[in-house]
Amino acid sequence: MSSGAKVVTHYIKESTPGVTPASPAAGAWKTARLTGNSLSPTPTTQVSDEITDSRISQGSVVTGLTIGGDLVGEMSFGTFDDFLEALFYGNWTNDVLTVGTTRHTFSVQKAFTDVGTYHLFKGVHAATGSIEIPEEGKITLTIGGQALDYEDGESSFVTSPAAATTTPFMSSLAVGDITVDGISLAGAACVSAMTVNVDNTVQLQRCLGSGRLGPGAIIETEAAITGTITLAWSKRAWLIWKEQLTRKPFAVSFPIEDSLGNRYVFAFPSIEFDGELPNGGKRDIIQATLNWTVAKVAPFITRVAAATEGED
Hints:
This protein is mostly beta strands. Helix content is 5%, strand content 43%. The protein has two helices and 20 strands. The protein has helices at 81-88, 235-241; strands spanning 7-13, 30-31, 36-37, 40-47, 60-74, 96-98, 106-112, 117-133, 140-146, 149-153, 179-180, 183-184, 191-199, 203-205, 217-219, 224-232, 250-257, 263-274, 287-294, 300-304. The strands form two sheets. It has an 18-stranded antiparallel sheet that branches. It has a two-stranded antiparallel ribbon with strand order 14-15. A hairpin with a 4-residue loop joins β7 (106-112) and β8. It is globular and about 75 Å long. The N and C termini lie far apart (54 Å).
């Protein structure tokens, strides 16, 4: 019998998509901090249509394998930077990350350590991702992975892994001043919840003779970046809401800072809002949930580490 507390995830960056590094240096494998890992191989089958002297089904054959699932964690500084790079198809440059065309893939081991089964997912791409900031609670990050290949065994594929990060996880209280076109919403249109969604709109390309159980290639197409924001209804909220009729873009930014002073600053230079007029009963606080879509200008994330003791 296996316990959820003994499901341990490690990952390593790949140089070639789908190829696990053969002799990695100590610490190249990293220990993931997750609340859930649903990576799994899912076969596609077709049932035989053969007609024989029996009415019994003649069985099925595997025709393909979809390898994927979600990696879910509580947002903390420095913990998911590798996966954010992969999600944005970009690189952290001077601690700034934006949408690009650089492919980052990982080998990810999902280990049931108490029963001794080890499951290796190769060529894991960050196909989708989402950040959920609730009205009250922990901020969570979900990476939707798609992989090229899979194998398993009774011994670990991981060698000399680095320990997990120890930075504190973040809650809704970690969100700082939210600005729209450089003007704070504080006191004008209280924000109670937000989401950020990234969909790389990946396509799975099947290749005969690839030698892989999964697809021959995973190809990214449009980077569709969307989200929601829930605002207390006010004149400021109305002025934002009404511009959906003109398609006026807005610039939105906000920081998320942990208890040590480490922070990420999310900047969306050009987003369009959509949403209906809010409704509510006489005992309700009226709020408007607006959908937003990035238009034409890529967003970026800036990471700022807390100053260490002794620094000026």
